[in-house]
Amino acid sequence: MHPILFSIGPVAIHSYGLMLGLAFLATMYLSSRRASIFDLSGERVSNLIILFLVSGIVGARIAYVLANMSLFLDSPLEILMINKGGLIFYGGLIFASVAGIVYAMVTRLAILDTADLMAPFIALGHSIGRVGCFFNGCCYGRPTDSFLGVCFPDTLVRVYPTQLFSSAGLLAIFFLLFFFQSRRRFKGEIISLYFILYGAFRFLIEFLRGDSAEVLLGFTSAQIISIIFVAVGIILFVLMKRVKR
User: Fold this and answer.
1) Residue 176: which domain range?
2) pLDDT tens per residue, the chain (245 residues)?
3) How many domains does the chain have?
4) What is the rounded CA–CA span in Å between residue 104 and residue 128?
5) Cα 178 to Cα 121: distance, rounded to the nearest angstrom
C-alpha cells in the first residue's frame, strides 16, 4: 500500500491521483488517434474526453459521498479530497454518459459511433485506475488464506487483491473490444458488448469484494446495477442488430 508515492517539497504525489491522470492521458491519446475509423473529429473527441473526466469524477464522488454519508458528517471538507480515493465507478459512468450524450447532441457527434469509439478506452482507463485503488488500499477483497492474499493496514488480515483482479479483467475487456472495434457489424455493437462484458465481470468480482455491503437479496448495489447494465447491453445489441437488418 503506497497512497503517497513521493513528495516534491510540500506537495505529495498520491498514487491514486497519478493513476487517474495516466488513465485520462491514455484514453485521450488513443481514442483521438482512433476517431478517424468512425469518421469522427479527433478534436471533438478530445473535448468530449475532458468532459468525461470532469463529469465522471464529479458523478463518482457524489455517488461515493451519498453511499458513505456518515464518513463526512464531521469533516465535510473531506468531500473535496478525491486524491485520496473514494469514487464509485458506476456513478461516474452514468454521470459522464449523460453529459457526453448532451455534448454529442449539441456538437452533432454521432452518439452510437462515439460510444463505440470510447467503449474500449473506458475499459482501459478503468483498468489503470484500479491499479491506483490497489496502491491506495481501497476496494479490497474478502479475507482469504490463499497465497494470492495481501494485507492492507485497514484490513489487518490477508484479503483478495480484487483491485488487481479487476484491472486484469478490464484490460482483457479492452483488448477484446479493441479487436472487434474495426470489425463492427452495426452501430452500437461495441458499446453493447462493453455493457454486457463489464456488467457480467463486475457482478462476479463483487463476490470477492470485502468492502461492499449487501442491500437486496444478498446482492450488493454494484451487482444490482451490473444486472441492469447487462440487460441494457443485450437489449441495445438486439435492437441495433435488427435496425441494421
Assistant:
1) 4-244
2) 676 776 677 776 777 778 888 988 898 889 988 988 888 887 888 888 889 888 988 888 888 888 777 777 777 776 776 655 677 787 888 888 899 889 888 888 888 999 999 999 999 999 999 998 888 888 888 999 888 888 876 667 889 999 999 999 999 999 999 999 989 999 999 999 999 999 999 999 999 998 877 778 889 988 999 999 999 999 999 999 888 76
3) 1
4) 26
5) 8
CB environment 85-119: b (16+ within 10 A), e (fewer): bbbbbbbbbbbbbebbeebbeeeebeebbbbbbbb
Cell digits of residue 219: 446482492
Residue 241: helix, strand or coil by DSSP? helix
Q: Is 146 helix (H, G, I), strand (E, B) or coil?
A: coil
Tell me, rounded to whole angstroms, the distance of Cα 179 from its chain centroid: 20
Nearest to 161 by CA among 222, 205, 101, 196: 205
Which grid coordinates are listed for 238? 438486439
pTM summary value: 0.86
Find cell 485497514 and name the residue.
154
The residue assigned the cell 448532451 is 102
Say how far apart CA 43 and CA 120 lie, in whole Å.
Answer: 19
d(CA 231, CA 227): 6
